From TrEMBL:
It comes from the Bacteria. The record marks H222 as: Important for catalytic activity. It catalyses: adenine + H2O + H(+) = hypoxanthine + NH4(+). This is Adenine deaminase.
Amino acid sequence: MAHTDFIAGLPKVELHLHIEGTLEPDLKFRLAQRNGVELPYKTEEEVKNSYTFTDLASFLAAYYDGMNVLLTSEDFYDLAMEYFRKVAKQNVRYVEMFFDPQAHTSRGVSFHTVISGLRRAQLEAEQTLGVSSQLVMCFLRDFQAEFAMATLLESLPYKDWIVGVGLDSDETGNPPAKFTTVFARARKEGYQLTMHCDVDIKNSIEHIRQVIEDIRVQRIDHGTNIVENPALVDYIVENRIGLTSCPISNTWVSDSSKVDLLKELAGRGVLVTVNSDDPAYFGGYIQDCYQRVADEGDVDEEFLRKLSLNAVDISWAPLAIKNALREEILEYGK
Ligand code: HPA
Ligand code: ZN
């Protein structure tokens, strides 16, 4: 294991983290019991053994199934608090956290229930753990654009609690262009914009082109297939559009971690970052993701430091947080 101590102490920023993807089997059982939900598993081991996904669609089936235990505001609070407690120990200082309101409102759990629980955990984590965070609301791309628009409108009373919007779920057959109107309205409302372009998806380059040229996002989640199109690579370098790559997640939904692409893109000047995506399902929090890059990529400590600096640069954190973190990371280990 390379650079383990350096990685552990490095101040870190997480930009691609689905809070519902942090639901560990033990919490799943506790919430199931508290809410009287019957699970088709008897032990945590059985739950873990059921995680045999080989692509995005098979992962998403398990991910949505797991959410059935999340019913009350307290459940969302517990979910987020457990995540914050874990990553505070990994020296994570700032998180931009995705949440999927439609995955809950479509089950009869209200928008307010979800966001009030998450918000309470965010405030507590900032005060007691020193981890600050902001929420990024994701629309589910396999639902109709009209449902996304209705969700956008429903979010407006909570606008001060949400920094940006994203797009996730099953990308096949659901191109970014399906949500052009929704994202134009989100921009008008003052939200920052990002979208998933998952790895090795059909029409990947066309989807990446759409998010850059038509939707005009500030960053792209995953997006490493951009390496196949040098003109698009040049464009994102010039416009400082960063990528949130997730090496451990990649090993579950594609043929590799794509660490080689991360290095190649970094070499060309792209602002690449390392993130965990859905750590409870993919078996690795952010420290493990940095470790994966170090072990597989044979990179030096300056490269690891640059990954963390890139995350600060492309984050939507308040300027004071960005400046303080940048200084701390630059001085770390010197
Ligand atoms: N891609 C698409 N949808 C998702 C992901 C992802 O990485 N994680 C949770 N939902
Ligand atoms: Zn994701």
